[in-house]
Amino acid sequence: MTLINPPNLRRAFGPVALGVLLASGLAAQEAVVYDLLDAEAGEYTLTADVASAGAWADAYEVRLAFDVAGEQDLAFVRVVGQRAMLVRVVAGKAATVGAPRPLQPTASWQASVQRREGRVRLLALGRVVLDEPWAGPIAGRAGTWASAGVTLNEPFVQPHEQAFVQDDFTREPDDLGPWTALSGQWRNTLVSAPQAAATQSANPFGFRTAGDPAALAATGYGFWDAYRTRVSVRPWAAKVVGLAAYVQDARNLLAFRWSAGAADLPKARQLVLLRDGKESVLAAAPGGFEAGQWYRLEVAAQPGRIEAFIDRYPVLSAETDAFGQGAVGVLAEGGEAVFDDLSVAPLDAPRWEAPRINPVFLADETMTANELYQPAGQWRTGEGGVLWNRGYYPGDVFVQTAAAPLAAPLTVLLRGDGSSAENAYAVTVQLNGGTVQASLRKGPEILAEGACAAEAAGEVVISAVGGSLRVASGGSEAISFADLAPLTGKLLGLVGASAEHVNGTVVASPNSRDYAFDSAPTDWFSSRGVWQVTTRWPCQPGWTFFGGTHSENPTLWTKHAYAGDTVLEFFANLPMDVPPPPGYSRPSDIDAALCGDGVDLGSGYAFIFAGWRNTRSAILRKGQIVAETSNAVFVDPISSNFNFHRHWFRVRAEKIGSRVALAVDGREVLAYSDPDPLLGGRAAVFSFHNGLMVGRARLWFTEEQPGSVVPAWLPSAPAPEVQIRDATTPVGNDFERDAGEWQTFSDPSPIELALDSTTAAAGGRSLRIRSLVSGGPLGAYAVATPFRATDMRRLSFDYRIPPGVAVNLYAYAANTWHAIRLSAEEPSIGGAVLLGTIDGVQTDDTWRHAEFDLLPPLAALHPESPVLTVKYVAFAAPEESYVRCGIGANRRGATYWVDNFRLGP
Questions:
Q1: Torsion angle (degrees, nearest 10) of CA 446, 452, 455, 458
Q2: What residue spans define the domains of the chain?
Q3: For residue 2, what pLDDT band results from cuts at 50, 70 and 90?
Q4: Residue 234: what pLDDT?
Q5: Is the CA virtual torsion 121, 126, 127, 130 positive or negative?
Q6: Quick one: average pLDDT of 725-744?
């Protein structure tokens, strides 16, 4: 869907003669006759194309008049020779306003006068020539005049309108709608999920370009002059992405341009001016983007200044007189990128954006059963019939309600503690005819009463900003009261609310975020897994929602960190991964984290719901369980049980003061009082051995701190080449020359294997195994050539394992993985078959020796297999342990070393 404000038709009018005699102090006595245009009331831009008979001469002159009230009262921009100036005529006396500016007109050029409230500008030759404050209201008409030898072609007045566009690119692939492709190829693309239906998707379309050659697309109008443009972008392979303002054409524009690269990449962020195809850098800063992640780019442009933002925080600004007006654009170079959620609005528009709910989600029975998208789902009924909002508001809060339902009174409770209406500010509003009547109480005391005009189709806003309470509608106030002893509650509620009241009420706060994932998840980044709009039910593939898949531990972190009290509430369930019944192969784990570092899920508080193969739930602090229960798990998690299969679990993780709690579907299941509460950090949602679908998420916080994507780690050196070994040859790896047949489980791999010359049990080198992610397998194949355990049974090696590293040794035989315990607990549920334990293992970052005889335990477990062929021997973290999520051990960068690895008779 696209919303863009259409311009008023540009109109040229017939001339009306007006004689004006300039005062002798300004110019020679002369009569000037203007061609007047009917400028409508309000702001406007007067534009004319100027042409001279030959090269521009000193005698040539052009005037663009505005605020023309008569012969004795008017103002105009005067361009004479090589100068431009502003002139005001009052009671027949003329005076310049501000200082004249140099200008070098050509034989053909365009001049525009922007008449704005309190300001006048001259735009000419692609720059802002004059920009002066202007006292007095916009009044009178506009007109033009030119000296002999100069022609003004079709002057027109363009009434000024605020820039406004909203575009989610929901169109046919080749329908660009209001966009013009200035370079490169552009298409609207549907989500990649097979058989996805646009009408059943949270966010179906994106605006995609190959970015090679460089691609630029533009939308909007050339007369837009002051606006804020925002767009989401996911640079899949693009080397450069950007957002443009004041676009004249493909060779003339201003842009924020961002390059891929490391966080310290010099000049990766640039504000650039492109004029006649020649580029100038106006400002630059380090910091590249991470490919594959979503970002929210923003440019605020006004004549004389441009400012750039990433993910809502400023990164660059520059003063420039370039252009002063123009359209907006998106750009990409060097590879594929997808854009979404374009928004163009006035500079003073609110910075937060309410979710746009798919209308199908508001009507379909499957979607409305859990009140996931319904306004009623944001409220709970308390004592005395009070509807308490589920949010937690430690900062300013705004309650916007439609005026029409206020024919019946409504009381809004602000700064409440949730106990009763008496412990909150009570603001009662009612619409009486065209008037909103309002009263403010604090307990039994009436603090203020008042009224203001309101239209039945309008809105009423009730706000608490600091200790100030306000009731307003349109530009009028009914109440404005500052409490010297303000209440400090964090909850808000409604008293006497009908369904119409609830459906017409929206709550907003700069200390909260609401994500229905109808737009790109630019406040979040994926550290593991593929997070995108995808199918939840293969049996109903049309429905697509935001989710994470393609990982044993799909993890989505917030880019920003949150200090003080933090509450995360999200609706989630698992994607169906087995089309026939039971539909779910190993249902478990709808999990969250608070106060994390954006890398390791064990760095803060972890909240595990239906974990440990759906046997218990727990709260962990820095990887250690501090509260757990077996009474909060999935019930009958199969596809034929619609109470599970179609359900969205409302999971709430919160840290308020020293209290940490987990609630599911409105019921608190675990709580913990932390004697040393963590100060803050990032939030995350994740799962384990499942995908995770997230229908909606909300955050409330005391303070948001700027953040960004935490860059992925890459191997510091190529993996050693694999050496082919004969099946009957004993294994002997001393790692002095090569790594034998050691190899990672996949390519690319989250594990780095390297020959390390800085430490060894003997000789000069050892093999280093390092994790590039938090959790993960933290291992590799040590032997990948099948062998008979009857021929090669004795395994020995030296190891150096620091604290916080949990790995075991594994052997694959008889179609089964078998574990030899080294430094990790092997889970009793779902874990590998335990062959035995290497005695005396110590994780003290010191070289130790280990030996193990494979044959006796394998022969005892598999007496039917006299040959006992072993296909693989590997080191790895236990597959069923949360150390695979980086919880409890194996944080990113976890490293251990192996030397003198031997397998023989």
A1: -60
A2: 2-159, 165-345, 390-499, 516-705, 731-904
A3: low
A4: 98
A5: negative
A6: 93
In the predicted structure, residue 18 carries a pLDDT above the cut 70? no
Report, as an integer, the average pLDDT of 221-226.
Answer: 94
How far apart CA 252 and CA 275 sit, in angstroms, is 5
Task: Round to whole Å and give the CA distance between 541 and 559.
Answer: 31
Of 274, 273, 272, 295, nearest to 284 (Cα)?
Answer: 272
CATH number of 165-345: 2.60.120.560
Exposed/middle/buried for residue 822 (C-beta within 10 Å: 0-12, 13-18, 19+): buried
Name the band, by pLDDT with cuts 50, 70 and 90, for residue 161. Answer: confident
Do the Cβ atoms of 2 and 166 come closer than 8 Å? yes
Q: Which residues pair with 241 in a beta bridge?
A: 258, 332
Phi then psi dihedrals of residue 711, to 5 deg: -60, 145
Query: In 10 A of CB 367, how many CB atoms?
Result: 22
> What band does 14 get if pLDDT is binned at 50, 70 and 90?
very low
What span, in angstroms and rounded, lies between the C-alpha atoms of 526 and 512? 21
Structure tokens at 403: 């005026």
Q: Which CATH architecture has domain 390-499?
A: Sandwich (2.60)
875-902 burial, b at 16+ Cβ within 10 Å, e below that, comes to: bbbbbbbbbbbbbbbbbbebbbbbbbbb
d(CA 123, CA 113) in angstroms, rounded, equals 6
Question: Are 481 and 440 spatial neighbours (Cβ–Cβ below 8 Å)?
Answer: yes
Q: Tell me what pLDDT residue 457 has.
A: 86
The model scores a pTM over 0.85: yes
Instruction: Please name the helix (run of DSSP H) or strand (run of DSSP E) that holds residue 241, with its range, or none.
Output: strand 240-249
How far are the Cα atoms of 57, 100, 127 from residue 112, in angstroms, in the given order?
20, 17, 10
| pLDDT confidence of residue 40 | 64
List the one residue out of 361, 354, 347, 351 whose CA is nearest residue 304: 347
pLDDT surpassing 80 at residue 39: no
CA distances from 51 to 61, 79, 330, 552 (A): 11, 13, 33, 69
For residue 593, the SS3 value is: strand
CATH code for residues 516-705: 2.60.120.560
**Positive/negative CA dihedral, 392, 398, 402, 408:** positive
Q: What is the reported pLDDT for 3?
A: 52
* Class at the top of the CATH hierarchy for domain 2-159: mainly beta
Report which of 77, 85, 62 is spatially closest to residue 147, judged by C-alpha positions: 62
pLDDT in tens, 286-327: 999 999 999 999 999 999 999 999 999 999 999 999 999 999
Whole-angstrom distance, CA of residue 428 vs CA of residue 451: 11
